[in-house]
Specification:
Helix content is about 30%, strand content about 20%. By secondary structure, the protein is α/β, with parallel strands linked by helices. It folds into two domains: about 80 residues, no CATH class; about 60 residues, no CATH class. A four-stranded mixed β-sheet has the order 1-5-6-7. Strands 2-3-4 form a three-stranded parallel β-sheet, with helices on both faces. Helix 2 runs parallel beside helix 3 and helix 4 runs parallel beside helix 5.
Length: about 170
């Protein structure tokens, strides 16, 4: 006697929409440009020397990369110095921000989430995937949750087979 078993995909039948923030990960190398390397004795920025450096530096090495400009030294750096760097990086880099690599990642995800067509999640039960190969900043989870709260029926965190409820609209 041949008994045929039907395998039922309960996750597919549940009507849950899975959202993986890692799919929004902007490709490209991340680079931290630390202006401390331009400081005289690690303390002060000399305008003439800095302007010469900016003029002669090979900025093409940053082509297509995401750049975070910062100063990790305990020094007072004038705003115009960061502006000069941004001016030289803007034509070649994919992204230029002031801050560390963590802030750069946050901004990159914010920009991707701004492009998201949130309407396709209207009245949907959404599961925001939690773990994965790509590190997603917590801020991206928060930004996505705020956007989805305005349109979705419910929001859960985790995997479709094991979720943590975050929000359920009262109908």
């Amino acid at each position: 006697m041949d008994i045929q078993e039907n395998i039922v995909n309960k996750v597919a039948q549940s009507g849950l929409v899975s959202f993986d923030l890692a799919e929004l990960y902007p490709q490209g190398e991340r680079v931290l440009y630390d202006i401390k390397d331009n400081l005289f004795h690690g303390l002060i920025l000399r305008e003439k020397d800095f302007r010469e450096f900016v003029r002669e530096h090979n900025w093409d090495q940053y082509a297509g990369k995401h750049i975070a400009i910062t100063c990790t030294a305990d020094a007072i750096v004038p705003t115009w110095a960061y502006m000069l760097l941004a001016n030289r990086l803007a034509p070649v880099a994919k992204t230029v921000v002031f801050g560390d690599l963590k802030l750069l990642e946050t901004i990159l995800f914010e920009r991707e989430l701004e492009k998201l067509d949130i309407e396709k999640y209207r009245d949907q039960r959404v599961v925001i995937k939690g773990c994965g190969e790509i590190a997603v900043p917590e801020s991206a989870f928060i930004d996505l949750t705020v956007k989805l709260t305005n349109v979705s029926k419910s929001i859960m965190y985790g995997e479709p087979c094991s979720t943590v409820p975050i929000y359920k609209r009262k109908d």
